[in-house]
Every structure is written in C-alpha cells, then in structure tokens.
Amino acid sequence: MRNKIVDDCKFKIGFTIIELIVVIAIISVLASIVLVNVNGYIAKARDARRKVDLSSINKAFIIYYVKMGNYMVTGSGCGYGGNGNGWFNYSGGSYPISMAQCLVNAGAVSTEIIDPTGGRTSTPTARYTYMKYSCGNPIKTYIYAKLATIPQSSTATDGTCCSTCDSSYGMNYYIQF
Fold first, then answer.
1. Do 146 and 175 meet the contact criterion of CB atoms below 8 Å apart?
2. pLDDT of residue 86
3. Per the structure, how many domains does the chain have?
4. Which tens digit of pLDDT belongs to each residue from 97-122?
C-alpha cells in the first residue's frame, strides 16, 4: 500500500504544459504593458532634458554675448557659413565650426551641449538635434528642438526666424532670447 501512495505522488508533482503556457502568456502580456509605459517615460525624460538643454544654451549665449559682443551673427565664424544660423552641433562643409563648439571655445560652457540622442548632423534621420536662428532689428534669437511627446505641427515655428523649421526639419519647440 505504501508503494502505491509513493507512486501516485510521483505523477502529481510539477506543472502541466498547459499551466506553463498560461503562465508564460500572462508574463508576456505584463511585460509588453511595462515596455510600452517605459518607452513613454523615456521619451518624456528626453524631452525634459531637451528643455533643460535649451535653457542652458540660452544662458550660454548670454555669456557668449557678454564676452564676444554678439549672438554669433555673420562673421562670427560659427554655424552655417559663419552667420550663426542653422544646426547647433554640426560642423563640416560650409559649417566651419559648430555653434556648440564656439560656446565652449569662448568659455560660455565647459562641454558641448548635445541632444540626448546624440544628434549632431543635419541628415533627415537625425532630426533630434538643436537649431539656432537670429533675425530682426533689434536681433531676436531662437533656439529650436524637436520634442518626441509633442505632436508634429506645420505651425509650431510660425512667427520665428525660421518659420519653416517645423515642416522642413521637424522642430516643434523653441525658446526666444
């Protein structure tokens, strides 16, 4: 009789294949919910960093102005064609030195301010980067970014120095100084 009880217990220990499949399915559903939420939080964190970066760039330009007497305008040697407009972190071709590096060289910041995704170029695939444009008299200067959590709009940069930065480059957020 004792052997029969031991033999019955051998077959009742463990999980069935159906139980394992159900547990795996539940874990998969929970993991996918968590991943969707994590991606949203990552985008929000990057956007918060971008806003802080624009504020830091704004302060750095004020320091640059005090030291150099301008906001990187024509003849400054910084930015597109040396006129201080365009892609903030890009150098090469007609960009003699990036505006970010000019701020470092002037002692306005200690290191280049770069988008959290590392965007430095003007290629269509690297739209997460910063831009700067100055215009008008008195001069108004705008710094632009593309935030991932704000829907794209064709009017986001209307009334600024680069009114087409939204449709041409995907910029949907800016600050003015």
1. no
2. 85
3. 1
4. 888 999 999 999 999 999 998 877 65
Query: Domain of 147?
Result: 51-176
Answer whether residue 103 is part of any domain. Answer: yes
Instruction: Tell me the pTM.
Output: 0.77
The answer to whether position 116 is within a domain reads: yes
Domain-embedded: residue 160: yes
- Which token pair is 137? 């008299």
Report CA-CA distances (Å) from 60 to 44, 85, 92, 114, 172: 24, 16, 22, 13, 22
pLDDT tens digits along 131-145: 999 888 888 999 999
Give the tokens for residue 153. Answer: 């709009």
H-helix or E-strand spanning residue 3: helix 2-12
**Beta strand residue intervals within the chain, DSSP E:** 86-87, 131-135, 140-145, 173-176
* H helix or E strand, kind and range, residue 18: helix 17-68
Closest CA to 114 of 146, 139, 88: 88
In a domain, 24, yes or no: no
